[in-house]
Amino acid sequence: MKTSVLVAGAACLALAACASPNEGNPNGAAYAGSPDSVYEASANPPKANGSVSYDPRAPLPADPLPSPGGSTMPR
Q1: What confidence category does residue 47 fall into, taking pLDDT thresholds of 50, 70 and 90?
Q2: What is the pTM of this model?
Q3: For 6-35, how does the pLDDT look when each residue is reduced to its tens digit (9 = 90+)?
Q4: Taken in order 28, 34, 37, 41, is the CA torsion positive or negative?
Q5: CB 33 within 8 Å of CB 39
Q6: At residue 70, does pLDDT exceed 70?
Q7: What is the structure's pLDDT at 16?
Q8: Which of these, 45, 29, 26, lies nearest to 37 by C-alpha position?
Q9: Three-class HEC string of 45-58
Q10: C-alpha angle with apex 70: 68 to 73, nearest 5 degrees?
Q11: What are the backbone angles phi and psi of residue 58, rounded to the nearest 5°?
């Protein structure tokens, strides 16, 4: 029993040694925003293109026209 546990543990350690640290980041480069990253936020600042403002107190839009074909829902 003890021998089979030791053999299984050794096999797990051997397989773990073959695994890379992170398959999605094989060279171990730092991610954007982490202290060692190459990304400089001042050189390429985040942009707010296409941002939408929302006013919860704004009036609701007018009812759309009923669609042709009778597929409107009854009220």
Answers
A1: confident
A2: 0.29
A3: 999 888 888 777 766 666 777 777 777 677
A4: positive
A5: yes
A6: no
A7: 77
A8: 29
A9: CCCCCCCCCCCCCC
A10: 115
A11: -70, 150
**67 backbone dihedrals φ, ψ, rounded to 5°:** -80, 145
**Burial call 29-49: b when 16+ CB within 10 Å, e when fewer:** eeeeeeeeeeeeeeeeeeeee
DSSP state of 7: H
Reported residue count of the chain is 75
Alpha helices in the chain, H assignment, sequence order: 2-18
| CA–CA separation, 72 and 75 (whole Å) | 9
| Strand, helix or coil for residue 16 | helix
Q: What is the C-alpha end-to-end distance of the chain, expressed in Å?
A: 73
What's the pLDDT score for residue 35? 73
Residues with Cβ within 8 Å of residue 25, at least 6 apart in sequence: 31
